[in-house]
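Below: protein 1.
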Amino acid sequence: MSNKHCSSSRYLFLLPLITCLAFPITFVISYGYSIANKNVNSTGDFPYISETGTKPPESCVFGQLLNIAAVISGLTIYVRYRQTHQAFKHLIPSSSKNNYRWNTAALVVGMCASLGVSMVGNFQMDNLLIAHYIGAGLAFVLGTVYSWMQVYLSYSLLVYMCSRAMFYFRIVCSFITTLFLIGTLVGAQLYQNNNKQVLSYRLLSTISEWIMALGLAVLFATFASEFKATKVEKPRISIIQEKLSSR
């Protein structure tokens, strides 16, 4: 590999860090914007993440930033997939086919979660609720599944690429994400069952959602240390002259 390629790959570790920061930055901007425009209640209540980007003009900012975050997270997930594949192939030649299947499954699950993030931004609650809920389900439920799949893959890569401390930290991130996913769903259901009269149930749900989202963002940041040991080469694009001459 040329020095130019090595130089560009040196900063690859920034990709998961940018992914981690993209989500809370998006949420803080949309929350502040919605409060400034008095589209959410800033006293006595705390909104769901989606409620901060439901009404214009903050819905435009919310959608654009989430689309960017979805693309960045998708890139991170793909690089993580390729990195893990190469680790199994070259660092652990005796690795079972099951590990490769888990890695491929994690790629599919992660990409679907990124698609869900984009759907949450593009289909606001007030405009197309069903599509919004589908996107939220993909983002949060599959995002949580993806985090546990990374725990499994990290266990398979212990000693070879993943440190034991990082493995345990990812378990903690996944546990927190799962716990607050349950809190989000249970709080929302209790709030509905009580005719939306008990505000504490809503707060349980909304606060849990924010913590869950931050937990998923932190998971991406944990890839940074391993991305430092990874290099990316530019794809090769070739012209098929026979195809051109036949036109």
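Below: protein 2.
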Amino acid sequence: MANTELPGFDPARLRQLLGARSPAAVAEAIEVSRVTIHRYLAGERTPTVQVLARLADELDTEPLGLFDPDAVGQGLLALRITAGLTQAAVADKAGPDLTVDRYQRLESGRTRQIREADVAQLAVVFGATEEEVRRAHQWSCDHSDSG
């Protein structure tokens, strides 16, 4: 998964939240092309976290409101989407001890042990409690495809 891709984006939720508004009007308001909005609606593309924040604001919802809750779950991905950050931005804000690769492995549940220093830094980055970070990481591990 590229840092800018957000699994679980739900075109049907976007369509529902658009209501009677035209995709062109929303595209203009959030400064993307009409083609981009139509690709979101067709499920051909997902917004970057930066565009997601503007889109959610324009549609008067939280960023997670544009996602299938079953696909996103309650793991580190959900915290990252809520914070509006890429994986690279999370690693950068967390400091030099948390690399992008390590964060990706934590988020995917492939790294089953999370260091206390990472918990503390991620809590600050996500604006969450340390317990919320621990629970989110455990959820990521419990729902990991890697085992």
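DSSP finds ten helices and no strands in the chain.
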